[in-house]
Amino acid sequence: MNKKELLGRRLRELRKRKGINQEKLAELINVDPTTISNIENGKNYPSMINLENLLVVLDSSFLDAFDFEHKNTDADLLTQINQKLKDNPDKIEDFYKIVVALTK
Length: 104
Hints:
The chain has seven helices and no strands. By secondary structure, it is mainly α.
């Protein structure tokens, strides 16, 4: 998933958490509803001014908007873990010890 899609998903999550639909959000920041849809679907990045306005309405920070790590699916996380293991074969035992310690 690319950064544009991740940002769109995150902004959708923040909007839903606030209980606002796309049309209302568009009205509040004075843009067309398709602008919000295109941002949330990862088709377009928001302009800086639109991003600032979105974050004000959503009562969120730039850090909140770009917090993508929690959005990884289990499959994505497993793929990333496997890649880290392949890239660091000398650390497999350390990875194992950490996993065992976390799952006790």
